[in-house]
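Appendix C: a fully annotated inverse folding record. The material below is reproduced so that readers can follow the format used throughout the book. The structure is listed first as tokens, followed by the designed sequence.
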């Protein structure tokens, strides 16, 4: 049964297609973004808006964007833009809002963009999507449309990393960070050369005999990736899992750790010493500890298992962690005899009743 699903499942093909999708993304954004004429004036505030996986993307993107450009950037669930705009949308001063949606038809994202256009003349909207022919690309003032990263599968994998990579490229460009842009250019080849190792890692960590509860831990932009890792695992396997800032995890939630708990750390070089401390604490209460970390420090963290990732800067390396996290969820689904292409209770797009897909 598992082998048959593996050959047929589209989700696996899309996960393994990421080196190609990333190369096409970098080419597309370099060719198109400069001509859009989107400016980031001094004092601009930047919003990143999305739902589900695209909100996890927004959380990751906001941190990376602020780090590379210095512009204050925040992530907001799309529903909060039209339901709680006074606490989420700056009413004055220049604002650029990136509205993120693979499908380009998620009702809350479209409602958020329409609300911004109607009530906030100070806001410029940028659609980020994988479907140029759908509504978001038409109603946003400009659109980053990565059709090559669209997916047949319900769960988002290459669409997540490709849209994130496009936003990272924009951040590096708007921040005049040529070194970061150069590092991004290396990512497709780095991923191509490490994807088999990542798939093997995913099988090891996702195996049902090793854990029945997962905790993903990441700081800063890596927290958004940790949150996305939990959504992949929930969507594909319904396994109990949570995401935390690693140091916050010790302030109470560590009480859920037991034998059968796997704690997966997304380690950046800048904070590795602090993470090693949390690894020790989780090991001490019977948790299994797994680190995804830069090659140079992976083995020194004291984790039970680890995956080494290409050095690069913490900023540029961040998106490289995602395929390994996607493989964990995919491998576990197959181990459980589930079909990753048919996640329980889920459709590719959530359309609210009072609005039809535009
Ligand atoms: C957003 C989303 C997905 C989720 C599921 C339902 O889609 O919440 O993140 O996995 O497919 O839709 P989109 O707005 O990015 O198309």
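Designed amino acids, in order:
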């Amino acid at each position: 049964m598992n082998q048959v699903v593996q050959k047929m499942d589209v989700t696996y093909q899309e996960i393994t297609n990421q080196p190609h999708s990333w190369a096409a993304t970098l080419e597309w954004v370099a060719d198109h973004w400069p001509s859009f004429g989107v400016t980031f004036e001094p004092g601009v505030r930047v919003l990143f808006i999305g739902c589900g996986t695209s909100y996890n993307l927004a959380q990751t993107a906001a941190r990376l964007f602020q780090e590379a450009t210095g512009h204050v950037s925040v992530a907001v669930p799309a529903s909060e833009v039209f339901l709680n705009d006074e606490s989420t949308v700056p009413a004055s001063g220049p604002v650029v809002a990136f509205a993120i949606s693979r499908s380009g038809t998620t009702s809350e994202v479209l409602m958020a963009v329409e609300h911004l256009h109607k009530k906030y003349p100070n806001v410029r909207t940028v659609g980020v999507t994988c479907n140029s022919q759908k509504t978001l690309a038409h109603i946003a003032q400009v659109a980053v449309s990565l059709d090559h990263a669209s997916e047949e599968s319900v769960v988002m994998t290459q669409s997540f990393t490709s849209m994130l990579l496009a936003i990272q490229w924009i951040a590096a460009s708007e921040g005049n960070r040529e070194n970061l842009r150069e590092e991004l250019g290396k990512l497709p080849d780095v991923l191509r050369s490490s994807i088999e190792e990542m798939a093997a890692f995913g099988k090891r960590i996702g195996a049902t005999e090793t854990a029945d509860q997962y905790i993903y831990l990441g700081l800063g932009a890596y927290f958004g990736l940790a949150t996305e890792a939990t959504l992949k695992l929930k969507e594909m396997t319904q396994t109990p899992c949570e995401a935390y800032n690693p140091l916050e995890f010790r302030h109470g939630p560590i009480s859920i750790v037991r034998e059968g708990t796997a704690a997966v750390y997304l380690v950046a070089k800048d904070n590795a010493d602090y993470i090693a401390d949390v690894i020790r604490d989780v090991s001490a209460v019977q948790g299994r500890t797994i680190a995804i970390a830069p090659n140079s420090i992976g083995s020194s963290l004291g984790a039970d298992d680890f995956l080494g990732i290409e050095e690069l800067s913490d900023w540029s390396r961040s998106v490289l962690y995602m395929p390994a996290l996607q493989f964990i969820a995919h491998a576990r689904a197959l181990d459980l005899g589930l079909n990753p292409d048919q996640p329980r209770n889920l459709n590719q797009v959530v359309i609210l009743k009072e609005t039809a897909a535009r």
